[in-house]
Write a structure and sequence with these properties.
Strand content: under 5%
Mean pLDDT: 76
CATH topology of the largest domain: Eukaryotic RPB6 RNA polymerase subunit
Helix content: 40-55%
Radius of gyration: 41 Å
Shape: elongated
Number of domains: 2
Number of helices: 12
Largest sheet: 2 strands, antiparallel
CATH architecture of the largest domain: Alpha-Beta Complex
Structural class: mainly alpha
Distance between the termini: 115 Å
Strand order of the largest sheet: 1-2
CATH superfamily of the largest domain: RNA polymerase subunit, RPB6/omega
CATH class of the largest domain: Alpha Beta
């Protein structure tokens, strides 16, 4: 005979909670997620099926096509018959162990990547100095650029600027502009004349350099030619 002071396991709060959870069963979201594994069944159709009592794949596979079409708006009997067939095939695969929907659902959950730790390590000062020197070498920056009034770009004429100047000058020559060099020994053709004029430094042109911000500077061609090697 048991002691009256002993409590039945069913009367404990833990047992009440477990019984309540079992009574509630899976949530609507979980049911919809499982029903959408049936080919041709989307979230909206799955929700209507679940609300109408077809809350498992097995129930859908055993349903009558007329009854199924009646509870889902826009679902014809032919479509309902196809859904029932797909549910039947899926249920067979589940029963045989070929498909495990619980494992499939877990595999879809991706673990969020862990944030990388903040790094505040600065490189040695020697590396910073060398990087600045390499940058200055590539861009052509030096202290006398400000003195000669070239604040944008290198202090020499770039290959793109050369090409534009020769092209523009060749067009002028083809339209009858007077040639500004001695033709003796000069390369023949309007492009040859234009290139020789550039090399001789006789072109009274200005090069405009513009930044993406709209800021620009007009540089006399003669100032750029002083630091440009023309071959």
């Amino acid at each position: 005979m048991s002691d009256g002071s002993e409590k039945n396991e069913k009367d404990t709060p833990e047992a009440d909670v477990e019984a309540k959870v079992d009574a509630e069963g899976p949530s609507l979201e979980e049911v919809v997620a499982k029903l959408t594994n049936i080919p041709g069944v989307g979230p909206k159709t799955a929700e209507k099926l679940a609300e109408s009592g077809y809350d498992t794949i097995k129930k859908v596979s055993e349903a009558d096509k007329e009854a199924l079409a009646a509870v889902v708006t826009g679902l014809s009997e032919a479509k309902a018959d196809a859904v029932i067939g797909e549910a039947f095939d899926l249920q067979e695969k589940i029963d045989s162990g070929e498909i495990d929907l619980d494992a499939k659902a877990k595999s879809k959950r991706k673990k969020a990547p862990e944030p990388e730790p903040d790094r505040h390590d600065l490189p040695p000062i020697e590396e910073i100095v060398r990087a600045e020197e390499r940058k200055n070498l590539v861009t052509g920056y030096d202290e006398d650029k400000a003195a000669i009034g070239i604040n944008i770009g290198p202090k020499w004429l770039t290959k793109y600027e050369k090409a534009r100047i020769i092209g523009a000058r060749a067009l002028q020559i083809s339209m009858g502009a007077p040639i500004m060099i001695d033709l003796k020994g000069a390369p023949m053709g309007r492009f040859g004349f234009a290139e020789e004029e550039l090399r001789s430094g006789v072109l009274p042109m200005t090069v405009r350099r513009t930044l993406p911000t709209g800021e620009y500077i007009d540089i006399p061609l003669s100032a750029l030619l002083k630091n440009t090697r023309l071959v």
